[in-house]
Fold this protein.
Amino acid sequence: MKQIQFKEVKHRFPKESLLCWLNEKNDGEFDEEWVIYIDHDLELENLDLDRPLTSLETIHNSSGMHQENYLAILIEGNLKAKNIYNEESDGSTCLCVLGNLETDHIIIGGQELYITGDLNVKQCFWGNYNHGDLVVNGIIKSRVFVATEQYHYEKEKLAVEIFLCDEEEDDFQRKFPAAIFSEDILYEEDEVDIEDVFTWNDWISRSTAIKMLEQNRSVLL
């Protein structure tokens, strides 16, 4: 594992990735940004994309790595992680896996997640907000797939059991997430303005869900 500037490793990213497209369109705007580069398969417990170095330094020597913010993590290989998450949905570290990604839970938003192989989420994938993009060249498998507040994904790639997407619904009743998620992450009806519910995000506490993942607890029933 090492930190490297985007300009030195951008040729390894898929040309179709949003990072490469924006960098070329905007005359190298990301060239001086820092990337965490891993050139092999990786298996770890949890990955916090708001604080990636903290997550990775427990299994890798991070001497000489000192940045507080990273543009992306690039993994040339497969990734297995129990939980992947981030709180900041306006902007967080991008993740590019040149292989397959297997995990129990993913709760993210605010970055590009690019997988050149398959994505297999055993429990729940939840992408939030329109600053987030999920691109998978293979198949997206998940027991539960949630997309809130215009999160971007490719519906034709989905092979999921339960699907909750703001753009596909006009009836946001609490009974639907209550049949799927732990009560610990659901708001009660007296905490919500029923007349103003327009997203599944109004019923599900993302911050509480992430705290559960940090404790290696499932957010599902």
